[in-house]
Amino acid sequence: MRYEVEVEGHDHIFEIVINEDRVILVDGEEVAIDFTDLQAPGLYSLLVDGESFDAMIEHQDAQWNVLLRGHLYEVHITDERTRRLHARAKMLADDSGEAKITAPMPGRVVAVPVEPGQAIAKGDNVIILESMKMENELKSPRDGTVERVNVKAGDNVEQHAVLVVIA
Questions:
Q1: Which residues are 17's β-sheet partners?
Q2: pLDDT tens across 34-58, in order?
Q3: How far apart are CA 159 and CA 167, in angstroms?
Q4: pLDDT of residue 131
Q5: SS3 state at 21
Q6: Best-predicted range by mean pLDDT among 13-17, 67-71, 107-111?
Q7: CATH at residue 135
Q8: Which bin fits 93, alpha (ψ -120 to 50), beta or left (φ > 0)?
Q9: How far lies 38's CA from each of 9, 11, 56, 135, in Å?
Q10: What is the three-class DSSP state of 90?
Q11: DSSP-assigned states of every residue in 28-71
Q12: At the N or C end, where does the chain have fewer CB atoms within 10 A?
């Protein structure tokens, strides 16, 4: 899995790729790691390329607070799936013409809380899609009216399939 990691105070966004146990890529460089929960809330032991660290880690939503060697770091982590969903939402945010809500990945339609002719606001859920055992709420990128609904609950869809069209 690929992550983008932004650490407060750094201008650089780190790309972290986790491919196998105990080895990760940080900006393309291989790093040997070991990460152990020390059974105390938020306390972890890290072994990074043979160097030992103890860290206190707390998180809420996408923000993590990491206390490491006496320094508190605010860290924001975005996984590949979330990054793709946000990028697609930005591409669809045009205020005129049709907005097509497409499947960002293959999956199964769990629910379609809208119907043709319904007025919707930016951010309203238009499709709930299950993929990789996770439910993804696909939202309207703008205010408008549902022009077409191409799926129903239970349908399996391929990546890029047009699910809903908003006028």
A1: 2, 25
A2: 888 888 888 999 898 889 999 999 9
A3: 22
A4: 82
A5: coil
A6: 107-111
A7: 2.40.50.100
A8: alpha
A9: 28, 31, 10, 31
A10: helix
A11: TEEEEEEEEE-SSTTEEEEEETTEEEEEEEEEETTEEEEEETTE
A12: N
- Asked if residue 6 belongs to a domain, the reply is yes
Reference 116, options 141, 148, 163, 142; nearest CA is: 148
- Look at residue 92 and tell me whether its pLDDT is greater than 60: no
Q: What is the pLDDT of residue 75?
A: 92
Instruction: Please give the Cα distance from 97 to 106 (Å, whole number).
Output: 26
Domain hosting 153: range is 96-166
DSSP string, 142-153: SSEEEEEE---T
- How many residues are given for the chain? 167
Residue 143 and residue 166 in contact, taking contact as beta carbons nearer than 8 Å: no
Residue 85 lies in a domain: no
